[in-house]
């Protein structure tokens, strides 16, 4: 056996011992929040999924699917090259104008995915001479972008404005620029960033604020995201000059975007390596995003459902009222979390266990995401199992 295989095996054994090995499971989603899990040989089961980020079930919407299918027939399956070569289909212009209008910014730029936005955008606004402040619970790809930037990086305690204030007071003067990076809606906890307070700190210290709103678009702020939601709630101004997000969650399609001023967007288009050196999205994917945004903008009742479902569940399980459709049930121990996930699977529910390093050590959890496609009786049944069979084990 080669040393390469030795290395891989050693690593796998170690991960197995710590119950931290991740394995892909073949999963086929249906049109209504269910999923077939497993392969034909390994016991394929139909489960009701509470772990999709397809909050409005738009990946399955007839209008969205037919927009994608029409685009495949007219324009083909792939983009053929990067956006700067021949991959910049006319639909991109429509999608970018649409995102900017909806989110009330001057301009927008669409990338291949949300991950690519963060890896591409952060390093062009912060470099060696700059200070990066990143919330400890911000998404892995914001941390990844900050690491690529190569400046002084400070990971601040989750949503702790005093901590950011202290770091800025101590360190800001030694740096050319400062960039604050946070999720708008935190992906593993479902809570929100205090954007009004962050705006005030950013202005006080001449720092730039960037939010990752992967879980806000389509849900918060009448669908336009967490910045607009915060502006509605707040007394003071909420200004977020760099707002990124994804088209692969509530929009049900694929791709990422940055909404910002015209000059920022123009600069990103000429500098972001993850836009320049990668192939454009298939036109069908762009068409699907446009069709989904139509539905998001017009259907307020649909937009409200995921949060209403999350609130019902939380009430039944005696958890605090959630601020987003993401509800974590923190069980702390990895083994208990894996057991709870397996128990739910036995009862017909798909709720994946989230373990370190995706979440901090000692905070392994079940992460429930609620969508418009769930039914009230299913939510009640799920809550009953969590309350009567899982939480008592966590307390014991
Ligand atoms: C899913 C997610 C991303 C990545 O977006 P993709 O389009 O899936 O690459 C980025 N940030 C957060 C907070 C996310 O939850």
What does this protein structure show overall?
This protein is of the alpha/beta class. Helix content is 44%, strand content 16%. It has 14 helices and 14 strands. α2 packs antiparallel against α11. Bound molecules: pyridoxal-5'-phosphate. Pyridoxal-5'-phosphate binds at residues 113-115, 139, 141, 183, 187, 212, 214-215, 246, 248, 256.
Name some characteristics of this structure:
alpha/beta, 14 helices, 7-stranded mixed β-sheet, 4-stranded mixed β-sheet, binds pyridoxal-5'-phosphate, 16% strand, 396 residues
The percent range for strand residues is 15-25%
What Rg is obtained from the alpha carbons, in whole angstroms?
A: 21 Å
Average pLDDT, rounded to a whole number, is 96
Number of helices: 14
Per DSSP E runs of 2 or more residues, the count of β-strands stands at 14
Helix content: 40-55%
Kindly report how far apart the N and C termini lie. Answer: 46 Å
Unreliably modeled segments: none
Ligands (ions, cofactors included) = pyridoxal-5'-phosphate
């Amino acid at each position: 056996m080669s040393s390469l295989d030795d290395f891989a095996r050693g690593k796998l054994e170690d991960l197995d011992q710590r119950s931290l090995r991740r394995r892909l499971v073949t999963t086929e989603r249906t049109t209504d929040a269910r999923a077939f899990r497993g392969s034909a040989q390994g016991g394929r089961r139909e489960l009701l999924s509470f772990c999709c980020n397809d909050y409005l079930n738009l990946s399955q919407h007839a209008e969205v699917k037919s927009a994608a299918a029409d685009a495949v027939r007219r324009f083909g399956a792939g983009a053929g090259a990067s956006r700067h070569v021949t991959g910049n289909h006319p639909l991109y212009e429509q999608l970018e104008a649409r995102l900017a209008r909806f989110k009330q910014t001057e301009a927008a730029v669409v990338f291949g995915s949300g991950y690519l936005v963060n890896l591409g955008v952060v390093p062009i606004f912060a470099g060696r001479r700059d200070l990066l402040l990143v919330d400890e619970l911000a998404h892995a790809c914001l941390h990844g972008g900050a690491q690529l930037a190569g400046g002084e990086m400070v990971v601040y305690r989750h949503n702790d404005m005093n901590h950011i204030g202290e770091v800025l007071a101590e360190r800001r003067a030694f740096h050319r620029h400062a960039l604050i990076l946070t999720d708008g809606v935190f992906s593993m906890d479902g809570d929100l960033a205090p954007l009004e307070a962050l705006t005030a700190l950013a202005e006080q210290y001449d720092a730039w604020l960037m939010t990752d709103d992967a879980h806000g678009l389509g849900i918060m702020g009448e669908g336009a995201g967490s910045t607009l939601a915060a502006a509605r709630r707040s007394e003071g101004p909420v200004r977020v000059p760099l707002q990124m997000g994804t088209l692969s969650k509530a929009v049900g399609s694929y791709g990422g975007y940055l909404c910002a001023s015209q000059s920022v967007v123009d600069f990103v288009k000429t500098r972001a390596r993850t836009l320049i050196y990668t192939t454009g999205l298939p036109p069908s994917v762009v068409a699907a995003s446009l069709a989904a945004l139509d539905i998001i903008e017009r259907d307020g009742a649909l937009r409200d459902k995921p949060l209403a479902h999350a609130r019902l569940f939380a009430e039944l399980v005696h958890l605090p009222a959630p601020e987003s459709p993401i509800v974590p049930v923190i069980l702390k121990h990895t083994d208990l979390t894996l057991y709870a996930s397996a128990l739910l699977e036995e009862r017909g529910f798909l709720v994946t266990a989230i373990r370190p390093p995706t979440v901090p050590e000692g905070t392994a959890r079940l992460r429930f995401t609620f969508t418009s496609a769930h039914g009230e009786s299913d939510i009640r049944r799920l809550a009953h199992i969590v309350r009567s069979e899982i939480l008592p084990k966590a307390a014991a």
